[in-house]
Amino acid sequence: MSASGGTKAIVAALAANLAIAVSKFVAFAFSGSSSMLAEGVHSLADSGNQALLLVGGKKAQREATPQHPFGYGRERYIYAFLVSIVLFSVGGMFAIYEGYEKIKHPHEIEHWYWPVGVLVFAIIAESFSFRTAIKESNPLRGDHSWTEFVRRAKAPELPVVLLEDLGALVGLILALGGVGIALLTGDGVWDGIGTVCIGVLLVLIALVLAAETKSLLLGEAAGTDEVHKIETAIVDGDTVTRVIHMRTLHLGPEELLVAAKIAVRHDDTATEIATAIDAAETRIRQAVPIARVIYLEPDIYSETEAAKGPDPAATPGGPVQPSTDH
């Protein structure tokens, strides 16, 4: 994800949520609608989340230090994970609690035109924010479905904004439905039911975000296409004859670590091998520009050793061979 694309979507969402939050709190003050209060807190939480994403993007740009030699790219993952926690606690759990209280102690909605007017305004504003996030995501999504895009994206900002905006729009529709039914029936319980539905929706979205950002924090490999490009770039057919094994790891959304053991000919000189490694690193960076940190270890390929299967000691994190002990 380009920094400019992500930042544009975040700023658009932040501006929309701040305006919507103010309008919702005003509507709550005049109408006493719990849906309006829950939605106001939701928009305020979303505004804080966008601020967190901007802070994470800024911190991730810091230069590497001796203590953090691979840089701070994962700051973006950390702040995206914090977003899921805020959305779960401040947004979802608060809405569920407020809805429960409203169901237990319902009261009639006053000045109905305030919540209805604000909800219509909020739906329009959120639609523009959602449209911006979709527009910025489409070039990166390519032929993948939206579900695949959210699951495979290495940059967390756009998936976070997309899910937040989607949740906001659905939540607004639920709030409008709850308020509308409460007004038609004169029973404030429906307002509380709408609020609980908003809370459940936010909790589900927060759990999806937490699962995806946790995976990124643990460290994800490059995508299948990138792995294929790297393997193709390494082998020159002359000095480097094959990739014995390879590991990739995202140090950040736009920084990839590549570590591989490569097969060279047994009669090549040290100078020839060093030259071949330098050339392979150049080809890798041309094929996959985000491959910033590359470690290539030369070795002599052995059919006998290869037939034994992966060696966990030689390839950390590799599959452990089943025990033959009985």
Structural class, judged by helices and strands? mainly alpha
Can you give the mean pLDDT?
Answer: 83
Counting H and I runs of at least 4 residues, what is the number of helices? Answer: 10
Percent strand equals: 5-15%
Q: How many strands, what sense, and barrel or not for the largest sheet?
A: 3 strands, mixed
The value of Rg in angstroms is: 26 Å
Terminal CA distance: 51 Å
Helix percent reads 55-70%
- In N-to-C order, the SSE pattern is HHHHHHHHEEHEH
- Low-confidence runs (pLDDT<50, min 5 residues)? 1-5, 315-326
Shape category: elongated
Please list the strands of the largest sheet in the order they lie side by side: 1-2-3
Oligomer: single chain
Number of strands: 3
Defining traits:
single chain; 3 strands; 3-stranded mixed beta sheet; elongated; 10 helices; mainly alpha
Provide a descriptive summary of the structure in words:
- With 326 residues, the chain is mainly α.
- The chain is 66% helix and 10% strand.
- It is built from ten helices and three strands.
- The chain has helices spanning 3-31, 34-59, 75-104, 113-141, 146-152, 157-185, 189-218, 224-234, 270-287, 303-307, and strands at residues 240-252, 255-264, 291-299.
- Strands 1-2-3 form a three-stranded mixed β-sheet.
- A hairpin with a 2-residue loop joins strand 1 (240-252) and strand 2 (255-264).
- Helix 1 (3-31) packs antiparallel against helix 4 (113-141), helix 4 (113-141) runs antiparallel to helix 6 (157-185) and helix 8 (224-234) runs antiparallel to helix 9.
- It is elongated and about 90 Å long.
- The two termini are 51 Å apart.
- Residues 1-5 and 315-326 have low confidence and may be disordered.
